[in-house]
Design a protein that fits this description.
The complex is a heterodimer of chains A (423) and B (367). Chain A is mainly alpha-helical. Chain A is built from 20 helices and two strands. Chain A has helices at residues 2-5, 18-57, 63-68, 70-75, 89-105, 108-116, 122-133, 144-151, 158-166, 174-179, 199-230, 233-248, 251-262, 267-275, 290-314, 318-326, 331-359, 363-368, 376-385, 390-414; strands spanning 182-185, 188-191. The longest helix of chain A has 40 residues, at 18-57. Chain A is flat and about 100 Å long. By secondary structure, chain B is of the alpha/beta class. Chain B folds into two domains: 24-131 and 273-330, Periplasmic binding protein-like II (D-Maltodextrin-Binding Protein, domain 2, 3-Layer(aba) Sandwich); 140-266 and 336-366, Periplasmic binding protein-like II (D-Maltodextrin-Binding Protein, domain 2). In chain B, 42% of the residues lie in helices and 17% in strands. Chain B contains 14 helices and ten strands. Chain B has helices spanning 2-26, 36-54, 67-77, 89-97, 106-109, 119-123, 179-185, 194-198, 201-212, 226-232, 243-252, 279-292, 295-301, 347-366; strands at 28-32, 57-61, 84-88, 133-145, 170-173, 218-221, 238-242, 257-272, 308-309, 342-344. In chain B, strands 1, 2, 3, 4, 5, 6, 7, 8, 9 and 10 form a ten-stranded mixed beta sheet that branches. Classes of the chains: A mainly alpha (423), B alpha/beta (367). At the A-B interface, helix 6, helix 7 and helix 19 of A face helix 3 and helix 14 of B.
């Protein structure tokens, strides 16, 4: 009794304030819980977040110019790019000194290819100059302006120097501009010439085709999932195997199978010609275009739509439909007003899965997409493994990632992410 | 006490295990190549005899298509796991430029010809980079269906652009390289002027305009196996690919396909050794290269695949196909009968203009 009437903090058995003891106990618990997930956190951080972050950082990283040509960058700081003339001997001498070191470390060609992304032809200028620079004596072999012009008169072209000057800061927007079909012109940001614009088209096409594939998966998957959920379990299990079997088959096998089916001398065309529906000369073109990509990808991604729908539909008691009908609803009203709303979380989960998988798809469009059915990921792969323009690949990847996050956010706003169920 | 002993024992065990495996490593090497029939020919001609002679275990990796990207990544990570890598010459030049491939002195590090000619002379002009050890000459050329071209089989490259005489689809590689050259050749540009014209924006437009005339009739391929499959299925009337792939369609699978050697574009394929290997691994890689690029070995490879050996001294030794028993010489891209009109890939040009022209080409494709 006296404890209650006393003012001041409530004390625990050991005489310390109860609040502190509680907090400490809770903190300890939290720490223990954290310690349990710590390995997972460290794993995700090390193998997922750090590498992706590093890759994304490449989309703006440009310290290579400053690191390889430090003296040149300083020497041309004040050079007037609009003067129409190449800089003076001091800049060339600085370049020669930078080259001397760069050639030793074999880094001059890397800068060359970096700058070549912006102005074609720089790569060979750097390579040629590198060969000569190896034998230069910085004290006696000047003046270097003549030396460089001797190697290739393009060294006197102000455009080359403008590029070096423009791309000397350690951070660049060049890759992102390129990824949006733009470039850093002499008067600021401008669109690239029309015959080089490609990425915006590809982004739009990727989004559009992913949406079409998602829609096709919903239309085809919904009846299958409904059937699976409403058949007696013995039959449903057999059907489920039919859904899972292609799911377990290699992606490449399934894509190649579509090639056999869809090509002009393929199974479908042969059948149509045999039936007399299509003339032999005018066989349908169903592959190496958008149609081929949509068909093959819909087939490949269909299980990702059916399975979440199925597990959600399984939880809808059939008695609800019966109840609706006994209250006088027609079949359609009972389905549309009672059953469908309850299956929406399954559609939501399936749609997110299919859409996000589709938007980053690479191998199927590459094989059956021809020229009009390829996605942005095919260009990213090209820049990673073939053209080696990793900065541009990273910029394209970043844009794709941001686009997916925005769509996810929009989905959350419109449908609500709590409204997604995998089962 | 028991725990300590167990711990000590396991540590000792794992240490010896580490030592043993390190010794194993010394007798193991990873060779990267293209896979398929090409890797099989190298296995037969180089790997098997080398393993028999030395007891070295050779691990095959089929990553040549991404070799430059992966080597760059390995180099950045400081852990190079490949010992010898098979790459095309353009990639070798890039790797050498970036310091990712070891420079080789042909006269001391490669075997001389049997008559004593030093390797630098035996390989001659094919040593296009200080790091590149040439192995084969291959060409990108066209094959056509003999049953789909009527009574006038095509004899020259421009048949590709002639959809009236040869209706039907054609397959071309989904990249600018080679296609732009062929387009200009067939648009009236002289062979020696092709790269001068292609250097200018107008020339690039001209090439794309020529390609535009057949754009609707083209199936674009990205894997070397595509054209052989399309030809075998009768999907295309003619298509470009590597000559060795066409050889296997014609001679091994007996399909009604013939070669159109006109304006074939020569290219080289060969070895590089990555930089950053430990001394004993590097020594082993060099030892392998010395063996695998000698005159006899290069000639041996031609028993399994129709690519021309890169050494002059190997040419007379090219014999018959190991399984089919046919003479291989007439199937080599370098055979005088096939090489009447050839085109040499310009490495320097494409190193400079590839990004620019490729961007335009891809934008044109997507239109």
């Amino acid at each position: 009794m006296s404890d209650i009437t006393q003012s001041g903090p409530v004390l625990a058995a050991d005489g310390k304030p109860l609040k502190h003891s509680l907090n400490r106990a809770l903190r300890r618990q939290k720490m223990r819980a954290m310690a349990l997930i710590l390995p997972l956190l460290a794993f995700v951080l090390l193998t997922f977040i750090v590498p992706i972050g590093q890759m994304l950082f490449r989309s703006v990283q440009n310290d290579i110019v400053q690191n390889t040509l430090p003296q040149t960058v300083i020497a041309i700081q004040d050079w007037d790019a609009t003067s129409g003339e190449a800089p003076d001997e001091a800049a060339f001498a600085a370049l020669a000194a930078d080259f001397k070191i760069a050639v030793e470390n074999k880094t001059h060609t890397r800068v060359g290819s970096r700058l070549n992304y912006e102005t074609p032809g720089i790569s060979s200028l750097f390579r040629k100059a590198g060969r000569k620079a190896k034998r230069w004596d910085l004290e006696t072999d000047g003046p270097f302006k003549e030396q460089f012009l001797d190697i290739d008169e393009d060294w006197g072209d102000p455009a080359i120097w403008r590029t070096i000057q423009k791309f000397s800061p350690p951070v660049t927007s060049g890759y992102f501009l390129n990824a949006a079909d733009m470039q850093l012109g002499d008067d600021g940001v401008e669109f690239r010439p029309e015959n080089q614009q490609i990425y915006i088209t590809l982004f739009k096409r990727t989004l559009f085709m992913s949406l079409v594939i998602m829609g096709a998966c919903i239309l085809l998957g919904y009846p299958v999932a409904w059937l699976l959920a409403n058949l007696p379990s013995a039959k449903a299990n057999v059907l489920l195997i039919l859904v899972l079997l292609p799911f377990w088959t290699s992606l490449l096998v399934r894509t190649s199978a579509w090639k056999v089916m869809l090509q002009q001398q393929g199974v479908i065309n042969d059948t149509l010609v045999w039936l007399g529906l299509v003339a032999d000369e005018s066989r349908l073109v169903m592959i190496n275009n958008q149609f081929g990509t949509i068909v093959a990808m819909t087939h490949i991604l269909l299980p990702f739509m059916i399975l979440p729908m199925y597990s959600v539909m399984q939880t809808i008691p059939p008695s609800y439909l019966r109840a609706a009908k006994s209250l006088g609803a027609t079949n359609w009203t009972a389905f549309w007003r009672v059953y469908f709303p309850q299956s929406v979380p399954g559609i939501g989960a399936g749609s997110i899965l299919v859409f996000i998988l589709a938007i980053g798809y690479y191998i199927t469009p590459e094989l059956v997409g021809g020229t009009k059915g390829v996605f942005i990921s095919n260009r990213i792969a090209f820049h990673i493994s073939s053209s080696l323009n990793w900065g541009l690949a990273a910029a394209l990847g970043t844009i794709l990632l941001v686009a997916v996050l925005i769509l996810y956010w929009a989905y959350d706003k419109i449908v609500g992410i709590d409204n997604v169920k995998l089962g | 006490m028991t725990l300590t002993r167990t711990l000590l024992a396991t540590t000792a065990l794992s240490m010896t295990a580490g030592l043993v495996s390190a010794e194993d490593m010394a007798n193991e090497m990873t060779i990267v190549s293209w896979g398929g029939a090409y890797s099989a020919s190298q296995q037969n001609a180089y790997h098997t005899p080398y393993s028999e002679n030395t007891g070295v275990t050779i691990i095959n990796d089929e990553s040549s298509a991404e070799a430059v990207a992966k080597l760059r990544a390995m180099n950045e990570a400081g852990n190079v796991t490949w010992d010898v890598v098979d790459v095309v010459a353009a990639d070798a030049i890039r790797l050498c430029d970036e310091g990712l491939a070891l420079e080789i002195d042909p006269d001391t590090q490669l075997a001389a010809a049997p008559d004593g000619t030093p390797a630098s002379e035996d390989f001659g002009d094919l040593l296009v980079s200080d790091c590149f050890i040439p192995q084969i000459v291959y060409s990108t050329t066209f094959g056509y269906r003999t049953d789909l071209v009527g009574d006038t089989p095509p004899t020259e490259i421009c048949a590709v652009f002639d959809t009236e005489t040869y209706p039907g689809k054609r397959s071309l590689e989904k990249r600018a390289i080679n296609n732009m050259e062929w387009a200009l050749l067939c648009d009236g540009v002289a062979k020696e002027d092709v790269y001068d014209v292609l250097e200018t924006p107008e020339g690039q437009e001209q090439a794309l305009a020529k390609l535009d005339t057949i754009k609707d009739d083209v199936i674009w391929w990205s894997a070397g196996a595509d054209t052989p499959q399309l030809l075998a299925d009768g999907e295309v009337v003619m298509g470009s690919t590597y000559n060795g792939r066409l050889f296997s369609v014609i001679e091994e699978q007996k399909q009604p396909v013939a070669m159109l050697w006109d304006a074939q574009i020569f290219d080289l394929d060969g070895w590089i050794i990555p930089t950053g290997l430990s001394p004993e691994r590097q020594a082993r890689a060099l030892d392998y290269i010395m063996f695998a690029t000698d005159t006899q070995r290069l000639a041996d490879q031609a028993k399994w695949i129709s690519y021309g050996p890169a050494r002059a001294s190997s040419a007379p030794l090219v014999g018959q196909h190991a399984d089919l028993g046919i003479d291989m010489a007439p199937h080599m891209p370098t055979d005088p009968e096939n090489a009447k009109n050839t085109f040499l890939y310009n490495y320097e040009f494409w190193a400079d203009y590839r990004d620019d022209i490729e961007a335009k080409f891809q934008a044109w494709l997507a239109k």
